[in-house]
Design goal:
Blueprint lengths: L1 E6 L4 E8 L10 E9 L5 H5 L7 E5 L3 E2 L18 E3 L2 E2 L12 H7 L3 E4 L3 H11 L2 E6 L5 H10 L9 H4 L5 E2 L25 E7 L4 H9 L2 E7 L4 H5 L5 E4 L10 H10 L5 E4 L1 H9 L4 E17 L5 E12 L8 E7 L5 E6 L4 E4 L14 H14 L1
Parallel strand pairs: 3-4, 4-6, 5-7, 6-8, 11-12, 11-13, 13-14, 14-19
Antiparallel strand pairs: 1-2, 1-9, 2-8, 3-9, 10-12, 15-16, 15-17, 17-18, 18-19
Helix pairs in contact: 8-9
């Protein structure tokens, strides 16, 4: 089956269909979204299932995708959230002892179309030159002008609240003892957790990844996950030792409810935010956010820790950023992105709150920034004294 990627500026990329809509005897599939590229070398299933990709079509720069199949323990949420996938070569088979389903069947079952056998380097160069563009992946390719028009008519990511769409519908307690919640990663031991007092963390779900919850429980935290619009009063009534603000998709500016919650809890409880949570912190502290030209997506972004002088290789997935010049004097910059000098971390000088514009839990990605969960643990311990 043939497929096409049609961009809003009229650029077309032709390829072979996999995933949803690739059956010649089945119905054609069209999916529309903002097209972004990710430079990670591994971890495609984690990318598929990251809710931060809601509303986006993902181009993977690594040329060979699908070769190790999929596994339930590699999923970062209950299902894939990407609108579509663009790759150079997509493997119809898998070869890995952990694999339970080939990637082609996994995405087909989830309704996600894949376009393969195209020049992904050309797609990436086009996005780098022109910025993020809306696009359509379609296996019904008779009228490409109509596809381009559909891409242009699609709502832009700017001003869109997607966090309230992907969030959990009700609160729940994260059960770290469930087999599906443990990866068996020997690099992330849990033996020392028994020596620590259990702390209660309430985590806002704006599109939270499961490995964030694993990292919190490895610090012996009991985690309660709450919907994005849960009020600050309701969270404080749970008597948390700390509050976590998660990653998520879309523009942070429409999330006035989340900004208000940060302001109401500031100085009352330790808070830690990542990615969208970091952007919410920036807005709550009086700063402004803006959209990056083509975003930061991948597992190889260098970040300078301004306190230690060390460089961390980090996993990132965001299209918006906090303007450091807009932040007040009582907020300090803790991390900077060495690729473009954008703000990558902040901390309030007096109140117990800090955040970073990347994914310290990785999955996929390096483990360089795992220490931030220990920093959060120490902040909560110090606050209790």
């Amino acid at each position: 089956m043939q497929a096409v990627l049609a961009l809003e500026d009229g650029r077309l990329f032709w390829g072979k269909a996999f995933g949803a809509g690739s059956d010649a005897n089945g119905p054609a599939v069209e999916r529309v979204g903002e097209v972004v590229f990710n430079t990670s070398l591994t971890g495609y299933q984690e990318i598929f299932t990251d809710p931060s990709y809601a509303g986006q079509i993902v181009v993977l720069t690594n040329p060979h995708i699908g070769n190790y199949g999929t596994s339930p323990s590699d999923a970062e949420s209950a299902r894939p959230y990407i609108e579509g996938l663009v790759v150079r070569e997509f493997s119809p088979v898998s070869s890995n002892w952990r694999s339970t389903e080939v990637a082609d069947e996994y995405l087909e079952r989830s309704g996600v179309p894949v376009i393969s056998e195209i020049d992904t380097r050309a797609v990436v160069r086009h996005l780098r030159a022109n910025g993020c563009l809306r696009g359509v992946i379609s296996t019904a390719v008779e009228d490409t002008d109509a596809l381009v028009a559909k891409a242009r008519a699609h709502k832009k990511m700017d001003g869109t609240d997607l966090a309230s769409v992907v969030t959990t519908k009700s609160s729940y307690a994260w059960d770290a003892s469930e087999p599906k919640n443990e990866t068996g990663d020997k690099l992330l031991p849990v033996a020392d957790a028994a020596a620590k007092d259990t702390l209660h963390v309430v985590a806002y779900d704006f599109g939270i990844k499961q490995n964030i919850l694993r990292m919190l429980t490895r610090e012996n935290c009991r985690v309660t996950v709450v919907p994005a619009k849960t009020s600050a009063a309701d969270v404080l009534a749970m008597a948390p030792d700390g509050v976590f603000f998660s990653n998520g998709p879309g523009d942070p500016e429409p999330l006035e409810y989340a900004v208000k919650n940060v302001q109401e809890m500031q100085g009352k409880v330790p808070m830690f935010g990542i990615c969208l949570g970091h952007q919410i912190f920036g807005l709550a502290l009086g700063g402004k956010t803006y959209k990056l030209k083509f975003g930061h997506h991948g597992g190889n972004h260098p970040i300078m820790n301004l306190e230690t002088g060390k460089v961390e290789i980090t996993a990132q997935n965001h299209n918006f950023n906090v303007d450091p010049e807009s932040l007040p004097a009582d907020v300090e910059r803790t991390h900077t992105n060495l690729n473009d000098d954008t703000l990558a971390g902040l901390r309030h000088k007096t109140d117990p709150m800090f955040s970073v514009q990347y994914h310290p839990e990785a999955s996929p990605g390096p483990h360089d920034s795992h220490y931030l969960f220990k920093d959060f643990r120490k902040m909560m311990e110090d606050w209790k004294k």
